[in-house]
Amino acid sequence: MLFNTLSGRFLLLTMLFVMLAEVLIFVPSVARFREDYILSRLERAQIASLALLATDEMIDANLERELLDNAEVFNVVLRRDEVRQLVLSSPIPAPIEASYDLRDAPAWELIRDALVTLVDPRNRIIRVIGAPVRQAGLLIEATMETAPLRTAMIEYGFRIFLLSLVISGVTAVLLFLAVRRLLVAPIHRVVSHMSVYAEAPEDARRFIEPQARVVELREAEEALQSMQRQLTGALRQKDRLAQLGGAVAKISHDLRNILTTAQLFADRMESSADPMVKRAAPKLVNSISRAVGLCESTLVFGKAEEPPPVLTRFMLSTLVKDVVESETLASEASGAEFVTDVPANLSIRADHEQLHRVLTNLVRNARQAIEATGTAGTIEIAAGEDDQGWWIRVGDTGPGLPERAREHLFQPFQGGTRKGGSGLGLAISAELVRGHGGRLELVRSDSEGSEFMIHLPRELVPSAVH
């Protein structure tokens, strides 16, 4: 309903306040109209009296009646040369009930007399006294009835009322439009950004960008942006800590087994001169290294706080070339061959460092998968763009992912793609891509290899919901 909205209530209040202002203007306006009405009758009466005096008071009775009817009075009295003279007269239908002296009458008295005339429906006979026009005597008196005066005052008040309605309506609409543009629209924008942000708090594109010119609204937008950044960081930290807590039991079990094996070898080295010590020593070192590596990965994941991506424009081919060169030395031992299909002029908008980490994780997993087979293989990196955004494909000819890894892919400590892996690489990569508003997905994984796809959106900010 309109009046349940901020705009509707502001419209209603504006109309009420404008009408109140018009009422405050209406009362003195009606009093002024009554005064002008009476003065105009006195002026007509004076003109009729002077016309009669100019004829030495020799005038036909019918003409005298016509002069009085034109002035809308019953009789006219002039005071000239200290003499009070009845100039024009006709029968008065009723006794005179009140006299009003308009000479130097205070404003409150004029307002009071006007209100009395409006509320009293009777046709009363009143005497009015005023100063003559152009000083044609000392004063002029006339007797008149109130019915025509009251009718004229009601008509005038009705016109004022209609004009007040028009003024209040136009003023209210203009203020309504102004407030809607300057206040309500920015508030809707903030609410819309809150709704869009709530749909995907990890998407850094959904952070509001302060644009309001009104100081208070801009401060609200800046506060909302700060809250969104803090909340996104807190959600990531909370999610990681929750995942870390769920993995503690498994880590403790695996770590205990690893360290127990290392302890057995260590005890044997200390208490026995067995020649097997030389063969046991490397195993001891490897066991301890595995334990340390697992602990370090766990602690790093629990403490990491990925910052929002800094989106810039750059050529994707340069980044892919850098990733391939970094993995080339390691791939020589595994027999992996790189094939790239990235247009040289393909420019994308992303965080260069974060995308580098994502591609490095995917390429390294592909290389290690091929290395595990003991045979040569191929790693392919391709990219392109469409109407929605950009896509990057990373595929390999490895043995494919185990079924358990596919079920818990992108989940820390559960989605490892190789034996002994923690699954943190894919989990972090998926989180970084989500921070861009995109997604990382497994397209296929079978005996012929695996293929991952990165989708990055073209829009800087998702469409707001109105």
TrEMBL record:
Keywords: ATP-binding, Coiled coil, Kinase, Membrane, Nucleotide-binding, Phosphoprotein, Transferase, Transmembrane, Transmembrane helix, Two-component regulatory system
Gene3D superfamilies named among the record's database cross-references: 1.10.287.130, Histidine kinase-like ATPase, C-terminal domain
SMART domains recorded: HATPase_c, HisKA
GO molecular function, one term: kinase activity
EC number: 2.7.13.3
Coiled coil: 217-244
Catalyzed reactions per annotation: ATP + protein L-histidine = ADP + protein N-phospho-L-histidine
TM stretches of this protein: 12-31, 160-179
EC class (word): transferase
Residue span, Histidine kinase domain: 250-460
PROSITE patterns xref list: HIS_KIN
InterPro entries on file: HATPase_C_sf (IPR036890), HATPase_dom (IPR003594), His_kinase_dom (IPR005467), HisK_dim/P_dom (IPR003661), HisK_dim/P_sf (IPR036097), Sig_transdc_His_kin-like_C (IPR004358)
Protein's name in the database: histidine kinase
UniProt source species: Albidovulum salinarum
